[in-house]
Structures are given as structure tokens and as C-alpha cells.
Amino acid sequence: MSTGAKCSWGLYHLVAVSTTFKAVEYSVMDKSGQTLYGASFMNNVFSEEDPIINVLESGHYYKGMQKGFKHLFIRTSQGIRNPKSTKENYWHCDEADIRSGSCRL
User: Fold this and answer.
1) I need a surface site. Which of 19, 30, 36, 69 has the fewest CB within 10 A?
2) How far is residue 18's CA from residue 41's CA, in Å, rounded to a whole number?
3) Phi/psi zone of residue 59: left (φ > 0), alpha (ψ -120 to 50 degrees), beta?
């Protein structure tokens, strides 16, 4: 981090997890062609009835897997990604840094 302040390992882990889930969200945006974010975005993209992204193409377990992934991504959007992390540069890593892999802790 470029703040020059001493940070505990807990903060580094918080930044790492937040940045990782930002990267997951950006990946879902890229694959879906959508530019939204958050729980409603994940609900729409991984819908069981009319998904933008299919976890499995077909089969006996299709709806269960689709629903499971949908809820996994919804919950991480709500529980791990908090409102502060949606602001650009909050963790000193913007979208371009995360996408390029140049965001360093």
C-alpha cells in the first residue's frame, strides 16, 4: 500500500480478500457483458431460469449447481464486498490495476 502507514497483517488480508472479490466481480462482468455489480447483478447473471452465465450446460444437477453458484456469488457480494470496497481507489487499486494484475499490497 502506498499510504506509508504501518499496517497489521489483518489489514493486508482484508485488502487481499477484497481485491480478490473485486477481480471475481470484474471477471463476471467481462463474461456476462454486464456492467452492474452486487447481489442483484449476481442473481441476474446466475439465474436458474434464464442465466447469462451457465455453470453447467445441462444434466441432472444443473439447477442445483446453478443455484449454488448463484448464492455463493450473491453472498460474497453482500458479505465480503462491503460498500467501502466498491469505491474506486479505496484500497489504492483501481479497476485497471486489478484487471492487469498490477495491484500490489
Assistant:
1) 30
2) 18
3) left
Report H helices in the chain. 9-32, 39-45, 62-79, 95-100
With cell 460474497, the residue in question is: 76
CB 67 within 8 A of CB 60: no
In this prediction the pTM is 0.64
Task: Report d(CA 76, CA 91) in Å as an integer.
Answer: 18
Going from the C-alpha of 14 to that of each of 70, 78, 80, the distances in angstroms are 23, 15, 9
C-alpha cell at 86: 466498491
- Core vs surface per residue 58-68: b (16+ CB within 10 A) or e: eeeeeeeebee
- The pLDDT, as a whole number, for residue 8 is 53
Query: Per-residue confidence at 70, pLDDT binned at 50, 70, 90?
Result: very high
**In the predicted model, what is the mean pLDDT of the chain?**
75
